[in-house]
Amino acid sequence: MIPAGVVTAACVTHESGSVDDLAAASPESQQAGVTDLLSVPDIEEAYVLSTCNRVEAYVVASDAAVGRAALEEFFASVDDDAVVRNDHDESLRHLLSVAAGLESVVLGEDQIIGQVRTAYEDARNAGGIGEMLEAAVTKAIHVGERARTETEINEGVVSLGSAATKLAARDVSLEGATSLVVGAGEMGQLAARSLADSGVDELVIVNRTVSHAEHLATELDADADAAPLSALDTIASEADVVVAATGSDEPVLGPRQLEADGEARPEAGTETETETETETETTTSDDDPERVVVDLGQPRDVAPAADALSTVVVYDLDDLESITQETREQRADAAREVERMIDREFDLLCEQYKRARADEVIAAMYESADRIKQRELETALSQLEGNGFSAEQREVVEAMADALVNQLLAPPTKSLREAAAEDDWSTINTALQLFDPDFGGDDGPLAPPLNAAAQASETRLETADDD
């Protein structure tokens, strides 16, 4: 059965909050987040999407107020100004937009569609996907696939990894450079492939599980090596470009690893600091490039103090805005096309819910009528048996009963479908209460009681039985 529930959602994104807000919002895992939401009384379904630049939670409850209260608790550790809340229609439309890539840091990026799928599987494993979210999330995945195959929304820079490479190229020449990627997860893989394609001379991939880094290194079209995290102390200070993208709860890079050999960290505000900065500005060249670090981690992979080093520039997710803005401008026409696609698919999703709700009530109505029909047939046929009543005559009576039910229910069936199309949920819900197949059972007709004519008919049959 499609529950008579509503979808409510809340999220913290790269647009609404800071990197620290995203870190505070992130659950232990997507599956754990779904489990927490389902533990709230009256929450029937739940879905959580957690990435480096968004944490989103969707719930289904019979009352929107219940859903809002559950989400308030879910995001209780986050600054209230960073949380965006959506009611039913806005939640569904937003989910479609997310999967299509319109809400991503890099407009139209491909990574999000896989993340939506993974979150769907995590929610299913946690028991959070019922029929309402099944329809919503699978529709979102469908929209995301259409957006990427039918438009040019993902042409050019298609991930944060490639955006990081483009940002680094503004400060150092990537051709012939030495590069380091910290983390071999999905984001690290994207960054490594982008750097390899940019023409770096050497690429080192550092990861806690070295075998994962080694596997990635063999797939790259570049001179790539793998190393453990413990090697960062020596490797990081030799790299021209560093991209960090791990899932660590604490920074994995700091001034100690990033400062160049012989570089002393000056006291803040001293003459030495000023002289060092001036020297760096005047001597930095293509032969002596400034070290660029792009931190894609959430929480941060690079300690903020590293940015104080005179030869190091540290960028984080917020600094990618300039790159992503260029992408948005290039893809403006495609984005408008995707928005129109979302409008159509959103309408189809709403119609799907309406048809399902109407079909549920219609099925309940026919099931109720069929039970009454079978009961009355058995009563009537039992009275006719033994009086020369043939099998053919029995079939005629049963056919007449079926025809009566179908003809009597045809007008309300049409009315219910029209009510669903016109958002007349009062009529739909009233009909569901009248014909709920789980009500009544063997104890008699459904409540409210049958009309006077039906009751009179039952009385006549009971009288006949007594005679």
From TrEMBL:
Superkingdom of the source species: Archaea
Enzyme active site: C52 (nucleophile)
Site keyed Important for activity: positions: H94
Residue ranges of domain Quinate/shikimate 5-dehydrogenase/glutamyl-tRNA reductase in the record: 167-261, 279-323
Recorded coiled-coil stretches: 317-344
Domain Tetrapyrrole biosynthesis glutamyl-tRNA reductase dimerisation: 337-436
Composition-biased stretches (Basic and acidic residues): 258-268
Catalytic activity: (S)-4-amino-5-oxopentanoate + tRNA(Glu) + NADP(+) = L-glutamyl-tRNA(Glu) + NADPH + H(+)
UniProt entry tagged with the keyword Oxidoreductase: yes
Domain Glutamyl-tRNA reductase N-terminal: 18-151
Domain remark text: Possesses an unusual extended V-shaped dimeric structure with each monomer consisting of three distinct domains arranged along a curved 'spinal' alpha-helix. The N-terminal catalytic domain specifically recognizes the glutamate moiety of the substrate. The second domain is the NADPH-binding domain, and the third C-terminal domain is responsible for dimerization.
Self-association and partners: Homodimer.
Family the entry assigns: Belongs to the glutamyl-tRNA reductase family.
Protein's UniProt name: Glutamyl-tRNA reductase
Primary gene name: hemA
